[in-house]
Write a structure and sequence with these properties.
20% strand; alpha/beta; Rossmann fold
């Protein structure tokens, strides 16, 4: 999908909430419409909530940023991907550090390259960062919450994958 074509919706868990504004800004700069959907707790919740989630006809891509599988009998990732296929929506899955991408052939955003391994709080500056002396920026707090810099990095990666 090239830049400026179609709308994008994003749904994630509570940890993704800080990314929504940065992602919306990045996507709008590329000519996409954007809607940030109410958070879900895990993939099982997403599989249950997705059928009732109304999306505008202009939405072509759904960004999914959910870390936990959840506790349900069926395979919630496969269920979500099947529902999206039935609705004609293209998934883009954000894969957080320490997680494995979905086994299926789906566009994934591997965030570990810019966020570091689980537990890392600081990463080397990128060209777009306001880099302090020392050459590193904080991407997460000690409690593993994303910083504004970490949120911006995820937003940039997702927007680049979508185009």
């Amino acid at each position: 999908m090239g830049g400026g074509s179609g709308g994008v919706a994003a749904i994630g868990d509570d940890s993704f909430a800080v990314v929504g504004p940065a992602l919306g800004s990045q996507l709008r700069d590329r000519g996409h419409g954007f809607v940030d959907l109410a958070p879900v707790q895990d993939w099982c919740d997403l599989a249950t909530a997705l059928p009732g989630t109304a999306l505008a006809d202009a939405v072509d891509v759904l960004v999914i940023a959910v870390a936990d599988r959840g506790d349900c009998a069926a395979d919630p990732v496969a269920a979500v991907l099947e529902q999206l296929d039935e609705r004609g929506l293209e998934p883009v899955v954000v894969v957080f550090p320490g997680e494995e991408p979905p086994a299926s052939d789906v566009r994934s955003v591997l965030t570990q390259q810019l966020l570091g391994a689980p537990g890392e709080t600081d990463m080397p500056c990128q060209w777009w960062d306001d880099c302090p002396v020392g050459g590193t920026v904080q991407v997460r707090s000690a409690d593993d919450d994303l910083s504004a810099v970490g949120a911006d990095r995820i937003a940039r990666m997702v927007a680049a994958v979508i185009g």
